Structures are given as structure tokens and as C-alpha cells.
Amino acid sequence: MSKPLGYYTNYTPGEDTLLASLQEEYGATFEKITVREKLVILTALASHMGCQLEGDCRAEIFALAKQITDAGQSHTRRTGNSHTLGSRCNQRWNRASTLTHLSADVARRRR
């Protein structure tokens, strides 16, 4: 990210907010985290934002997302790559995705 968080948000320096703590911990441009970590954050944000939208996704889109996930797992098995990072990421993603969807359901019920 070439510009600081405040460029993309309504963050005002000196505020006691999540954005302030993110900037303090990871740097104003997220320079203190890896590309993989940035992608995990981006995935979580995208999932959260998607859950906040009205309506639902078509079943074919969920099927496509599953195909993408399955293809990654299949590639790991086929190549014999013994590192388990892919499966760990999938487990974490599934857990985070489930929690995000559950919190979105609770928020919808409260409306």
C-alpha cells in the first residue's frame, strides 16, 4: 500500500480507534506485515463487507469459490508439497468465514 491508512479512510490522527491501533502496530502503510498477512486481512474485510450487503449470492458463485479452494488443496496433494500452510490457511479461513457469517446473521436478525 503506497498511501497511509488515513488516505483510504476517515481516520484522524490521535483518535483511539481500531485504525489507530492498526497503524501503530503494523505501520501507516502496513509496511510491518508480509504480503500473505495483507491478503488474509483483505480476505477478511471482503468477506465482512459481503456479509453486510442485502440479498444473497447465487449458488453457482459459492460453487466457484469451493472449486478454487479445492483446486488449491488438490495442487498441494498432487505436488507432494509437505508444508501444511495451505491446509492451515484453509482451516483458519473456514473458521473466520463461519464466524463472519454468523455475526452477519445476528446483525440481520436485530434489524
Could you explain how this protein is built, in words?
By secondary structure, the chain is an all-alpha fold. It has a domain of 55 residues. Helix content is 70%, strand content 0%. It has 5 helices and no strands. The longest helix is centred in the C-terminal third of the chain and has 26 residues. The termini are far apart. The mean pLDDT is 76.
Summarize it.
This protein has 111 residues and is mostly helical.
Secondary-structure map:
Layout (H helix, E strand, L loop, with lengths): L4 H4 L9 H9 L8 H18 L6 H21 L5 H26 L1
Helix pairs in contact: 3-5
Descriptive keywords:
111 residues; mainly alpha
Beta percentage is under 5%
Using the alpha-carbon principal axes, give the shape.
flat
Structural class: mainly alpha
Count of extended strands: 0
- List the total number of helices: 5
Overall pLDDT confidence: 76
**What letter string, H or E per element, gives the SSE order?**
HHHHH
State the end-to-end CA separation: 35 Å
Q: Please bin the fraction of helical residues.
A: over 70%
Computed over alpha carbons, the radius of gyration is 17 Å
Q: Biggest β-sheet, characterized?
A: none
Uncertain stretches:
none
